[in-house]
Amino acid sequence: MPASERGTADAILTAAAELFGERGYKGTTTRMIAERAGVNEVTIFRQFGTKQGLLKGLGDLWSKSMAGLVAESAPDPTDVRATLEALALMEVRQALSFGAPAVRLALDAGSVPEVAAIMGDGPGGNLSGLATYLASRQAAGDLRQDLDPNVMAEAFFALTSGFVMSRQVLGERFGDYRLELSVVARQLFEIYLTGVGLGGERE
To answer: Model-level pTM?
Structure first.
């Protein structure tokens, strides 16, 4: 895809994400998305086909930075420390950029068949993918054996999502706490690793 078309597609996807977060899937029209993106509605149809095609494009974009879907393809997935730290930063960045629309669409998936068909397995797939990776590292002896990998995956997302939620809810009222994202992700990861890493296992 030429750079100009890629730029237009990115603008459309950004506008769609914003509007889906504000109005939900059913409350958003392709005309609204076109106006927000500064393009003709025909451009949306030419690049994505339908509103559901646009939703699929958004899902494909998000899946490239969902921890559970990319863990096994990390540069060195056997390096559990480096992999999980990178995934924590990825999740924080992803959620800060697209947290609101992702949550809204996850809720919409429960009542809108079009959304369920595209996004329904997103959160579940992310969780199960990370649990599968963690189980493989347990088997290799890198992580505690006495914890369920699904619980470890939930704890990972609870830390990253909790941080993002507090930032989004509190906004400017967050006070003087303004650490760089990479620092926050690393410290969240250290808190997480203290719990799931070797050395904390119960007898």
So the answer is: 0.75
